[in-house]
């Protein structure tokens, strides 16, 4: 990859990484604050946070789909039209968010009881969810704002907006939970306050754009969203199944899987920042009708992803005897961790390439191919192996063999696509 292109990638990826990490880091702060109240409140926060995180994951098309469409227009020199994509994505975000609020108020208790069973824990979690769900439209608006701003190759403004919102939440959380005596619910109110700040900043960035709804653009964005939602569902099915099988095998296996999975998720954030840069740059190249540059970017980003993956794999191999002890002192869990750890290490180069090519094809708007191959990898690779592992008692090696099959099938499918020219469709719109 040329130095100039590498600088462009870093210019977009480096500010994107803190934005991606902001929510997980805030959840750590939230957990530490609520943890001072006791085990009941901490458990209730955990259940409620899973529900909100699942909702946010399912609607990431507001970011990824909008980036792809806005980047093409930006590459064609039509920045105002790229921002208009952000306006329409924001309308979708507000509508979906209000619908989620309505459903959430009615369904909070039964959904929580489905996860945690009836009882005091479920009651506390449902109360938290009913407050926190008011932030759903704000979360969706933030997703849409991130999407169009990445499309016009501005990752610095979202960094400022998201950090401002998280700072408000982080300051308010201990004040409302402990000083004001609002307990667990104070955490939910702090969340909503921070989300309000971030969403207001993203809305303010649109103040000079025409704000009327455009049904044609909304329909086109929802079509992209359908494919990305199905793709997200495949991921959810895989990782929920993996945790369920680990929990049924043993408590130690569940704990070990959680430790390694959280490290996997953290590294996914690092690699996703590369994917965000790939989306913006590839989309802009195709919008400018520069197919050769798009293909050059795909090759360069694949190599960069491979290098990142090899380096992280070597790094985590080197600390295999030390890092797990930072997360737990339980001897049973520590004994189980190596059964997943070496799969995790070996998969890093694969993950580096897969995430980079995901970004390339998301930037190209090749969402149907991504949807189909992800579903195929889940249905053919991951899910059969994971439930065979459960039936035959293979434990963590069986679970991570399933994850390896999932990643290798996706790698093969993405490399095949990259070798063809069918994904690099030039033009200002998808």
Automatic annotation (TrEMBL):
Signal peptide coordinates: none
Superkingdom classification of source: Bacteria
Residue intervals passing through the bilayer: 45-65, 86-108, 128-149, 161-182, 188-207, 228-251, 263-288, 300-320, 340-362, 374-392, 398-416
Keyword Protease in record: no
Subcellular location as annotated: Cell membrane
Alphabetical list of Pfam families matching this protein: MatE
Keyword annotations of the record: Cell membrane, Membrane, Transmembrane, Transmembrane helix, Transport
Membrane topology: Multi-pass membrane protein
Keyword Lipid biosynthesis in annotation: no
Family: Belongs to the multi antimicrobial extrusion (MATE) (TC 2.A.66.1) family.
PANTHER family named in the record: PROTEIN DETOXIFICATION 44, CHLOROPLASTIC (PTHR42893:SF46), PROTEIN DETOXIFICATION 44, CHLOROPLASTIC-RELATED (PTHR42893)
Protein name: MATE family efflux transporter
The organism of origin for this protein: Actinokineospora guangxiensis
């Amino acid at each position: 990859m040329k130095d100039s292109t590498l600088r462009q990638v870093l210019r977009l990826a480096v500010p994107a990484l803190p934005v991606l990490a902001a929510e997980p880091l805030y959840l750590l702060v939230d957990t530490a604050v609520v943890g001072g109240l006791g085990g009941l409140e901490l458990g209730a926060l955990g259940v409620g946070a899973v529900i909100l995180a699942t909702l946010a994951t399912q609607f990431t098309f507001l970011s990824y789909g909008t980036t792809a469409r806005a980047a093409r227009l930006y590459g064609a020199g039509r920045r105002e039209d790229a921002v208009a994509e952000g306006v329409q994505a924001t309308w979708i975000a507000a509508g979906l968010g209000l619908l989620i609020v309505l459903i959430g108020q009615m369904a909070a208790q039964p959904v929580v009881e489905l996860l945690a069973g009836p009882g005091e824990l479920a009651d506390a979690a449902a109360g938290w969810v009913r407050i926190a769900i008011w932030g759903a439209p704000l979360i969706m608006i933030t997703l849409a704002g991130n999407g169009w701003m990445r499309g016009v190759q501005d990752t610095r403004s979202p960094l400022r907006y998201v950090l401002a919102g998280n700072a408000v939440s982080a300051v308010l959380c201990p004040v409302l939970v402990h000083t004001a005596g609002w307990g667990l619910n104070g955490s939910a109110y702090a969340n909503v306050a921070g989300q309000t700040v971030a969403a207001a900043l993203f809305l303010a960035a649109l103040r000079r754009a025409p704000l009327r709804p455009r049904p044609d653009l909304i329909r086109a964005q929802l079509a992209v969203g359908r494919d990305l939602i199905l793709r997200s569902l495949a991921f959810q099915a895989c990782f929920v199944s993996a945790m369920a099988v680990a929990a049924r095998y043993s408590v130690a296996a569940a704990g070990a899987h959680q430790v390694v999975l959280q490290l996997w998720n953290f590294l996914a954030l690092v690699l996703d920042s590369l994917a965000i840069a790939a989306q913006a740059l590839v989309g802009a190249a195709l919008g400018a009708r520069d197919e050769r540059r798009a293909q050059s970017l795909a090759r360069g980003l694949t190599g960069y992803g491979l290098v990142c993956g090899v380096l992280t794999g070597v790094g985590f191999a080197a600390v295999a005897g030390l890092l797990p002890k930072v997360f737990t002192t339980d001897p049973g869990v520590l004994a189980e961790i190596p059964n997943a750890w070496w799969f995790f290490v070996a998969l890093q180069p694969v993950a580096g390439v897969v995430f980079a090519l995901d970004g390339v094809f998301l930037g190209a708007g090749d969402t149907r191919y991504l949807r189909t191959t992800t579903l195929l990898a889940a249905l053919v690779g991951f899910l059969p192996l994971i439930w065979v592992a459960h039936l035959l008692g293979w434990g963590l090696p069986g679970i991570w063999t399933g994850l390896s099959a999932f990643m290798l099938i996706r790698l093969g499918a993405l490399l095949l696509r990259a070798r063809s020219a069918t994904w690099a469709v030039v033009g200002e719109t998808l």
